[in-house]
Amino acid sequence: MSNAANVYFASARSTKWRYDDSMPGKLVRLIKQAGLSSYFSKDEWVAVKTHFGSPGAHRIVRPTFLRTVVNALKAIEAKPFVTDTVRIQGLDYLEVANANGINHLSVGAPVILADGLYGKDSIIIKAGDILKEIAVASVIHDVTGMVVCSHVKGHINAGYAGAIKNLAMGGVSSSHRHCGWKCGRGAMHTIGEGMMQWNEALCQQCMQCVEVCPLEVITFVGEKMVWNSDKCWRCGRCQRVCPAQAIYFPGDDERFMRSMAEAAKVVLGTFAPSKVLYINFLTEIQPECDCMPTADVPMVQDIGILLSDDVVAIERASIDLALKERPLPSSAADGIDIGATSDIFKSIHSKPYEYQLIEAERIGLGTSSYELIMLT
User: Fold this and answer.
1) Would you say domain 5-187+252-374 falls under CATH 3.40.50?
2) What is the pLDDT of residues 104-157, one digit of tens each?
3) CA gyration radius for the chain?
4) Tens of pLDDT along 150-207?
5) 122 and 138 in contact (C-beta within 8 Å)?
6) SS3 for 323?
7) Domain boundaries, the chain
8) Which residues 6+ apart lie within 8 Å of 273 measured at CB?
């Protein structure tokens, strides 16, 4: 396959009773096969970018895998740390990470917030036609190397979430100290159209929107909703959980997908060539993002681990592998027919997630053409 990117693959199946055939053992072998020393140097600080999860959302990249990546970086004498950007209040988010098993003892490296305790430590960088400018988390902006560890899953806005989403929303600060959410990740969510619409007649006063909001921007005074539009990040969780469909955020799905690719390009533009590696974990593929306050059962069986230095290729391979799997009984994907037109991600969220990859390839982030290299 000419001009194809290499994507290394280790299956989740274990057929021998030995550590090397376990998933952590296979990850060790996968990293060795890819060759970390050709990407990172002795004494170089390397960010291991992941998602810390949420209270109740435990299907994140497991700490044992993060420690495996950290140990591999230490073996070439690099200096790794594990990081994410603020999703809820910073101190609370570090407690969430610890509750989900991510701390300096479990992963063997410092665990830090890339955009500070208040989620506002970021650098404004010019973006493209959609975003204009975006606030990249200062730590990710300044560090010279990065391993992006992504849990493949569904997503309320993106439909499919993997490495591109991890870069675009996870590498960008939630807000900026001067321009707020409008140049943070909230700018991607609604592309400037994000004024909440609340239908009082449909509202059941169940308060799920109040409970799910990470910033407490929704309250009720009597039977009237009060929404703090200035503080809101436009994440869309309130719309997702409303059982009566009384909340609606207008937006443009295709532009949103393209804006994520644009933001990912800005984040990657802060690194020199060949300084970012991607590891996608196709395990516990649930329908929702790890930022939601619960984790549904997996939609398909665990598939394995992918590694590449091409973000488009690893995303394409992840999707291709996931769509081949039979939906699991009693999951959100139960009943979806396997065939040429089946798609577990679109069946759950009805989002044109392919535009993430189309736009990422168009703007030069990688290629959708790949060669799958099985672990040897």
Assistant:
1) yes
2) 999 999 999 999 999 999 999 999 999 999 999 999 999 999 999 999 999 988
3) 20
4) 999 999 888 999 999 999 999 999 888 888 777 887 777 765 456 889 999 999 999 9
5) yes
6) helix
7) 5-187+252-374, 194-248
8) none
